[in-house]
Write a structure and sequence with these properties.
The chain contains 1 helix and 11 strands, in the order αβββββββββββ. With 200 residues, the protein is an alpha+beta fold. Strands 3-4-5-6-7 form a 5-stranded antiparallel beta sheet, covered by helices on one side. Strands 9-8-10-11 form a 4-stranded antiparallel beta sheet, covered by helices on one side. The protein has a two-stranded antiparallel ribbon with strand order 1-2. A hairpin with a 4-residue loop joins strand 8 and strand 9. The protein is elongated.
């Protein structure tokens, strides 16, 4: 009796429609989770960068303000018309004064004195300066923005007797300036406060 050998046929199995739908659903869910996680990381980085930038701006402002006020001196200036200006002129949202210690690394033919202004314009806290105390008719302020998105700049002046004013110098009062309170309010409601003591 002859033996017949039946070839072994391998059966191919395919995924059912239900399995395909489950696999696709899992892929969609995993993709959505990955996208949400990546989006969250990007948002967190943007927020962290904004905070770091704000801190950097505030540190630069603090350093420059302290340097300026520490170098403040009683040296009057002349404007472009030859009129005398007080060494310190202050209003509620602008401060102008003469300061010493302006670096001159290139040994240019100029004084170490500098006339400085701090003011608010177009929601920017600006520092303006020029290198010649008694200016001519063609002088120009150099400007540098320190903080953006500023809503208010409030400056108060306190004399040695403790009298507080929004202007300096005080009328009919020759008392010495003791403190300058410098308050910056940002559009997001953040308030930055400095109490600066001139060395006069």
């Amino acid at each position: 009796m002859a033996l017949t050998h039946k070839p072994h046929i391998k059966q191919q199995t395919a995924m059912t429609l239900l399995e395909v739908l489950v696999a696709m659903t899992l892929m969609v869910v995993i993709s959505a989770i990955a996208f949400a996680s990546l989006n969250g990381l990007i948002d967190a980085k943007i927020h962290t960068d904004e905070i770091a930038n704000n801190i950097r701006q505030q540190l630069l402002l603090s350093q420059q303000l302290n340097q300026d006020i520490h170098g403040l001196i009683k040296r009057k200036a002349r404007d472009e018309f030859g009129q005398t200006k007080a060494a310190i002129i202050g209003a509620y949202s602008i401060l102008e004064f003469t300061r010493n210690g302006h670096a001159n690394p290139l040994n240019q033919p100029r004084s170490d004195l500098q006339r400085v202004q701090w003011l608010l314009r177009d929601n920017q806290l600006l520092r303006r300066s020029y290198d010649y105390i008694d200016v001519g008719s063609n002088f120009q302020w150099r400007e540098r923005p320190y903080i953006q998105d500023v809503q208010e700049l409030n400056i108060n002046y306190i004399n040695v007797a403790g009298l507080e004013s929004r202007r300096w110098p005080l009328e009919n009062n020759r008392s010495r300036l003791k403190f300058i309170q410098f308050n910056v309010v940002l559009l997001d409601g953040t308030s930055i406060n400095y109490q600066l003591r001139p060395v006069l």
